[in-house]
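[User] I wish I could look at a protein chain and see how it folds. I have put the entry right below:
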Amino acid sequence: MIVALGAPLLLGGCGGDDSPESAGPANQTAGMTRNPPLEVGAASLPNVNPDRENRGDHFRAPKGDLMLVYFGYTFCPDVCPTTLADLRLALADLTPSERERVEVAMVTVDPKRDTAKVLNGYLGHFFPRDSFAAFRTDDPGRLARVEDQFKAAHELGKPKADGSYEVSHTAQIYAVDDRGVVPVEWPFGTGPEAVAADIERLLAEGPSGSGDN
């Protein structure tokens, strides 16, 4: 699905529809393809997962591999756990050699509550502890700059009487290649089988350019 997207789309209170506003002719992927695609390789945030070997802070996969990036928060009641559970199912459909070439990365948009320990523990419920990147920063300006690179956004809700609050946020999964280019984005609700098929296709096609990792 080739999509021309403008302003980022938010999921209100982590519930709603993140469908694109407009879509062009379908291509070979189930996900959305921007024209031109996003380039996010220059963006970086601290990766706070101590169990991840060869930890990098940039949003760029190793040569020939893919990084799957998601913006969310651990207190999300429905959209985030559903998305990550579906992504786990999609990865389970890959062969072991394909799975080794895919890194899951989550950026917390709620660092006040999502400490490094909380974020790593949350992601560890879905993926092996040594297989994901956990991106976190206490600098709102730095987070905003990274979101801008991905055309993503979030908004903190008004605190309730008990101090809790919801967060509206873009809920797409971004596939990032070894150049920092985003060839495909999957909106919330894309099925695991469709995501797995797209990942297999992207890995089979190989790097679209020369990586520098």
